[in-house]
Design goal:
Layout lengths: L1 H15 L4 H8 L3 H13 L4 E4 L5 E4 L12 H6 L6 H7 L2 H14 L5 H5 L1 H4 L17 H10 L1 E8 L5 E14 L2 E8 L2 E6 L3 E10 L8 H15 L3 E7 L4 H5 L6 E7 L5 E7 L2 H9 L5 E5 L1 H19 L8
Antiparallel strand pairs: 1-2, 3-4, 3-7, 4-5, 5-6, 8-10, 8-11, 9-10
Length: 325
């Protein structure tokens, strides 16, 4: 309902101080045009909402204005009891505080909601970890966490993906957990970058404070950064024919390959278009299925798979191991 949306806009602006039209539209899942109409409605109703222009502009409430429309609905109260990742809370050192805060919240809500709220964890549970999570050891996580709050520059030794180690002086703006992997978002040399926390070999807090970029919003920045990363990912396409026996396995191999198109045809083979990250991944993946998958396009990939298969046979023949005749 529009009334609920207008109230939510008020609360968002009150809690986050300033938001752009795009950010409001994303959070409320409406168009930017709808946000402009809502702002006009709030203004007509006498709510002192103003627009600031410029790079770090956006919508905000006049200074000292506070709304008192803070009553919680039953569904809103229950949503507060959905369990976050306990591992991430442990990493931050907040697990005990979160547990105690939840008990205090239960004690503060109307008694007629106690039974329903307490039963939320028995009916809804969110587990964001992978089936086989890799537990990353972050030697300096406590220092990184504290540096974000102290707003002091830190000197880090950082291992890049290619194994090279660089030294950087950075301004830590926030920590982001992607799954169970932590990233440090920090400004360095006038540019905001993401550093995988487990690759920070050492960190030293410097006695040099810094100013956070005006208008910087960690969640908005991360969302945009993530989309840019996804767009930059490599892609390699292959057209293959597969045996029906392995079709189910292909559908559950999402980490390694994506099915872009699937067409059943006459006979026992199924035409499938596959997307890989790289050509090397495509060759290894296809070869692993032996005679249950065959490449039709590109021809270069087909030739390389044949060469790899011959190389394997030659390798084993060197040890005197030959196929039975």
């Amino acid at each position: 309902m529009r009334a609920d949306r207008l109230i939510r806009i008020l609360l968002l602006l009150q809690n986050q101080e300033r938001l752009t039209t795009k950010e409001l539209a994303q959070q409320l899942e409406v168009t930017e045009r709808t946000i402009h109409r809502d702002m006009e409605a709030l203004s007509v109703a006498g709510i002192p909402v103003v627009a600031r222009r410029g790079k770090y502009g956006g919508w905000q409430l006049m200074e000292n204005y506070r709304t008192r429309l803070t009553g919680l609905k039953k569904e809103e109260i229950m949503s507060l009891f959905l369990s976050p990742s306990e591992q991430l809370l442990k990493d931050l050192g907040y697990l005990q505080e979160w547990t105690e805060a939840r008990e205090k919240l239960i004690a503060s809500i109307p008694k007629n909601l106690h039974s329903e709220v307490k039963d939320v964890t028995n009916r809804l549970h969110i587990d964001s970890s992978a089936w086989r999570p890799s537990i990353e050891v972050i030697q300096v996580f406590e220092l990184l966490h504290q540096a974000v709050w102290d707003q002091h520059k830190i000197k880090i030794e950082y291992e890049r993906a290619d194994g090279t180690v660089v030294t950087r002086i950075v301004e830590p703006l926030g920590l982001v957990a992607k799954g169970n992997t932590w990233y440090v978002v920090a400004a360095s040399e006038g540019e905001i970058r993401n550093y995988r926390a487990s690759r920070v070999i050492s960190a030293e807090k410097l006695d040099e404070p810094f100013e956070r970029p005006d208008g910087f919003q960690l969640a908005s920045y991360w969302q945009e950064s993530k989309q840019q990363f996804i767009r930059s990912l490599p892609s390699y396409e292959a057209q293959v024919e597969v045996s029906p026996d392995i079709l189910a396995r292909l559908k559950f191999a999402g980490r390694f390959v994506k099915i872009a198109d699937l067409k059943k045809q006459e006979g026992s083979w199924i035409s499938v278009k596959l997307n890989f990250d790289t050509e090397e991944e495509a060759k290894s993946f296809i070869l692993g299925f032996g005679n249950q998958i065959r490449v039709t396009q590109p021809l270069q990939l087909k030739e390389q798979v044949i060469q790899m298969a011959r190389s394997i046979i030659d390798f084993y023949n060197q040890d005197g191991v030959h196929p039975e005749e």
